[in-house]
Design brief:
The complex is a heterotrimer of chains A (315), B (279) and C (361). By secondary structure, chain A is mainly alpha-helical. Chain A has 14 helices and no strands. In chain A, helix 4 packs across helix 8. The two termini of chain A are 42 Å apart. In chain A, 38% of the residues are buried. The longest helix of chain B is centred in the first third of the chain and has 37 residues. The chains are: A mainly alpha (315), B mainly alpha (279), C alpha+beta (361). Chains A and B meet through helix 2, helix 4, helix 5, helix 6 and helix 8 of A and helix 1, helix 4, helix 5, helix 6 and helix 7 of B.
Chain lengths: 315, 279, 361
């Protein structure tokens, strides 16, 4: 042993017992406790309460007394044409909007994957829409889409296209709302897919070039399969969020005109906070929740999402 | 041959620039329009055809504070979003550390459980929260929204921070323990400094979601606890819409998020994808 | 400081990783734990460090029971495979860290850091961050950080496996010199048999959570007790042939000319293997086999299948009927398809147990 002597921490216990170190086992529990408490009180409890409410005829506009009516609300929901119309509309909205922004995002990612002067700056513009408060997005697009005074129809008139009715006619309202959603959330998918594209290894592309594959063949056989995990994750997150779209639609159309954009969240808001039929509204919310879960599960199973995540974890 | 190739390259560069500029215009124009509208006078804003050059005025912003009570909304937003973000960050990071570094029973299940809250449409929990809040007498107070936002930020923090923590080699923490640190000292002196960029990025995203949230805020407040998105939405009345005012509100509430996120761009992708994609 | 490991077990769930390991490591000894991945060597090391707790058994350092003590109370140092450097600190700060935690005086700290850095040739690099260093330099920093506080015990977990072959050889001798000159008890974990042979005072060969054989490098090489040890150490590995113990105290195998009459100490070992119902093997190192003229007295004729000239030595792969083995020799004129004679000097043949389990009581 060297003569300088050992450097020791002062006042230590050399002979800790098993019990002392066994106390370390409670460390993870303590660390998890705050999160678990918040999730139980603010998350789980209201959820269970909502399940209970859905079995009653609670409606605060009729006073505080209410009674348990079993599954009557659920039975009523199955005959509620307006509800299922909203479900269908929401699924269509989600499918079209996500498909469009995914396609657009992939194309943009390919475009901006070229190293060209100025592209970094242009790319930043593509980022901003997803940062804007959805309410502000709704306000701005509603202004721009005004049929008589809006800038969009003015710009169309400059290139000789006649005025469109945008969100004010039932025929084009859904398309208009989808346009806004695509505008706001394509950037989200774009930056994820772009980052995925940038992180791909070079050699498969070089191999494809040597094998004589053209642009399209390379994209279909090399780029797309390698990008799959990134695309799957981006799409899943987008589906979940698109399904609950509320803010922009609330501002632009409030579900109208003539229920053309009466998405599930807008319809539920009306049942709950216009008519205050909270028992029925809770039942509808639960059905909506189950539908989201089914959609997510189907997607997860189709794409092997869990396996992708597990692979990432085990890298 | 050489000539046709140069020509081809030139043409494809031209096409690339045309497409890229079109895309940038498409995504940037509405923002430009919002900002410019917010500086237009009432007359300028309803001009048709729309005018491009005008004398900018701050009238809309002034009106925001005099008529829409923006000060209070700004304070409410800052308080609610600030506190809920801090709670979510603290509780979430601790939980993430436990999941990343300890053998917790049923860890995968727990992690997925936490994630499933991210899937939950807020419309499901808004009714019971509304009822409970009325019973507890905390309806229309900041506390209700603080709790709600802390909850919705939590799963996100847990998932993302778990990945950031896993990125730090465990041997660094073990080296610290052997060098003489207790578990707490190890976390405080070694792990935390390394986590700071990840923490900041996660915080910005949690902040953004809470700051922009409208559905819960509009249904769980009525007068006192209104946040910025709620008063901005109030500028839109079915009959008389104050476009300049609404645009000013939009600019004011979007600005902090845009600035914060652009500062943290490097870690953004990691955070947005729950840590699954490296940016 | 002597380390005493007493029947230590470690179980992760249902997985038994360390299976009753007992060993005494002497003060100042350079002790190497060698084995393939998953053999329990790293887990054993981590239990000595206090990073894992044993499921059963005791560990004491310098006579003090440290089985459940926290790592910081054991006065040990450790070098990690991925170095475990603090990426946000400079080299100076990295080396200083253990002293800072121990609240040493600032000037004292600086002096010690500079001394240690000088010793390891890091004097020029003190203000760099780990990311600006090469792999070899990083490993040097991790060694400096470990040595700066004169630990009682130095634990090393495959510290060289991330370096390229040339650097590994250089660092190997450097570490050995340094640690020996300081007289620090060292436990070194590796899967590289050459590293183990070159550095160790004693080697513990581990397999499936057991220390199969603990002995000096040459003893392990010359007298491997089990098939696992015989095949893990040496390249190409020892030739092994299924064997029988004859009543007269002779061991014979399928090749009649490869026979070995047991010495006194070997007889007990061979009996133990046979009594334990373990298979008995006869083994010989490839370089101990001699190539002689085909048909020579006492030699076995073999067919040459492949010749690998490596420069310094030559590997000759041969077969006798179904039995295949390898000979290491100097340059040879033998070619594939030739028939050669192979002689096995009886005193170089070894008795080896087919199964590790035989050695457990």
């Amino acid at each position: 042993m060297a003569k300088t002597g050992t450097v020791n921490a002062p006042g230590i216990r050399m002979d800790a017992t098993k019990a002392v170190r066994a106390g370390e086992k409670s460390v993870p529990t303590l660390l998890l406790a705050p999160a678990m408490i918040i999730m139980t009180i603010v998350g789980l409890y209201p959820l269970l309460h909502s399940l209970y409410i859905s079995l009653t005829n609670y409606n605060p506009t009729f006073g505080t007394s209410y009674s348990v009516i079993g599954f009557a609300n659920y039975a009523r929901a199955f005959g509620d044409g307006q509800f299922w119309y909203s479900v269908g509309l929401t699924l269509a909205f989600t499918a079209i909007s996500v498909a469009l922004s995914l396609t657009l995002a992939v194309l943009l990612a390919l475009l901006f994957n070229q190293y060209r002067f100025g592209f970094v700056v242009l790319r930043t513009f593509l980022l901003i829409p997803m940062l804007i408060t959805p309410i502000a997005v709704g306000i701005t697009w509603r202004t721009m889409m005004m049929p008589d005074l809006g800038i969009l129809n003015y710009l169309l008139s400059l290139i000789g296209v006649g005025a469109l009715s945008w969100a004010s006619s039932p025929a084009s309202a859904l398309a208009s709302v989808i346009l806004v959603d695509v505008w706001q959330w394509t950037p989200f998918m774009f930056i994820i897919i772009f980052a995925g594209l940038r992180s791909l290894p070079k050699s498969p592309f070089e191999a494809a070039a040597i094998d004589g594959a053209g642009h399209i063949a390379t994209f279909m056989n090399v780029t797309l399969p390698m990008l799959k995990p990134v695309i799957v994750i981006a799409t899943l997150l987008r589906i979940v969020d698109a399904f609950r779209t509320y803010d922009t639609v609330y501002i632009i159309t409030r579900g109208g005109p003539d229920f053309a954009t009466d998405l599930l969240s807008v319809y539920l808001q009306r049942v709950n906070f216009r008519i205050f039929d909270l028992g029925y509204g809770s039942a509808l919310s639960w059905i909506a929740l189950v539908i989201v879960l089914v959609v997510v599960l189907v997607f997860v199973n189709l794409t092997g999402f869990l396996k992708l995540v597990a692979d990432k974890e085990n890298r | 041959m050489a000539n046709s190739r140069t020509f081809k390259n030139g043409a494809s560069a031209l096409a690339a620039y045309a497409l890229a500029i079109t895309a940038a215009l498409f995504f940037a124009f509405p923002i430009f329009w919002m900002v410019s509208s917010s500086f237009k006078s009432e007359v300028d804003i309803s001009a048709y055809p729309p005018i491009w050059s005008f004398t900018p005025t701050l009238a809309n912003y002034a009106q925001l504070f005099t008529e829409l009570n923006a000060w209070q909304a700004l304070l409410n937003s800052a308080l609610i979003v600030g506190l809920s973000t801090c709670i979510a960050m603290a509780a979430g990071t601790l939980a993430a550390y436990a999941l990343a570094r300890f053998d917790v029973k049923g860890k995968e299940f727990l992690a997925f459980e936490i994630l499933s809250i991210r899937m939950l449409p807020p419309i499901v929990s808004v009714i019971p929260m509304f009822i409970i809040a009325r019973q507890l007498g905390i309806f229309d107070t900041p506390w209700l929204l603080i709790a709600a936002y802390a909850l919705s930020g939590l799963p996100f923090v847990v998932w993302v921070m778990r990945v950031f923590i896993q990125d730090i080699p465990q041997s660094i923490e073990e080296a610290a323990m052997i060098d003489g640190c207790s578990r707490f000292e190890t976390f405080w002196r070694v792990t935390l400094p390394l986590l700071l960029p990840g923490l900041a990025a996660t915080m910005v995203i949690v902040f953004m979601f809470a700051w922009n949230e409208f559905l819960l805020a509009s249904m769980l407040t009525s007068q006192e606890a209104k946040t910025l998105p709620v008063i901005a939405a109030n500028a839109i009345k079915p009959k008389a819409i104050a476009w300049g005012l609404a645009s000013a509100a939009g600019v004011m509430m979007s600005l902090p998020v845009v600035i914060l996120v652009l500062l943290m761009q490097r870690y953004l992708v990691r955070g947005l994808t729950l840590g699954a994609v490296k940016g | 400081m002597a380390i005493h490991i007493d029947t230590v077990y470690k179980q992760f769930g249902l997985l038994k990783v360390v299976n009753g390991v007992s060993v005494d490591i002497k003060d100042g000894e350079f002790f190497v734990m060698l084995g393939p991945s998953g053999c329990g060597k790293t887990t054993t090391l981590r239990m000595v460090a206090g990073l894992e707790l044993p499921s059963a058994g005791r560990i004491s350092i310098d006579g003090v029971d440290m089985t459940y003590a926290e790592p910081r109370h054991r006065d040990i140092a450790m070098a990690f495979q991925d170095y475990g450097l603090y990426p946000n600190m400079t080299v100076f700060k990295n080396i200083e860290f253990p002293l800072k935690i121990r609240k040493l005086d600032v000037r004292e700290r600086a002096r010690k850091v500079e001394d240690t850095a000088e010793k390891l040739g890091l004097g020029e690099l003190l203000q760099r961050k780990p990311s600006q260093l090469s792999g070899g330099q990083r490993q040097r920093v991790s060694l400096a950080r470990a040595l700066v506080r004169n630990p009682k015990v130095f634990l090393m977990d495959e510290p060289l496996s991330n370096l390229d072959a040339k650097l590994r050889a250089v660092m190997r001798t450097e570490i050995k010199k340094l640690v020996t000159s300081l007289g620090i008890t060292t436990i070194y974990v590796t899967h590289d048999q050459i590293e183990a042979m070159a550095m160790a005072d004693r080697i513990a060969v581990m397999s499936r959570g057991n220390m199969v054989q603990v002995a000096s490098p040459l003893e392990v090489y010359d007298r491997p007790k089990t098939r696992f040890v015989a095949e893990f150490i040496g390249s190409p590995p020892m030739n092994l042939f299924p064997a029988q113990l004859q009543p007269g105290g002779t061991v014979t195998c399928i090749l009649p000319n490869f026979a070995h009459s047991l010495r006194e100490d070997e007889r007990a070992f061979a009996t133990q293997i046979v009594d334990g119902k373990g298979g008995l093997l006869l083994g010989i190192r490839p370089e101990h086999l001699l190539i002689v003229k085909a048909g020579a007295q006492g030699a076995t004729d073999a067919l040459v299948e492949l010749v690998e000239p490596l420069g310094q030595t030559t590997n000759v792969y041969v077969s006798v009927g179904d039995v295949r083995f390898v000979i290491v020799t100097d340059r040879t004129t033998a070619r594939a398809g030739d028939t050669i004679g192979v002689a096995a000097p009886s005193e170089l043949l070894r008795v080896v147990a087919n199964d590790d389990a035989v050695l457990r009581h």
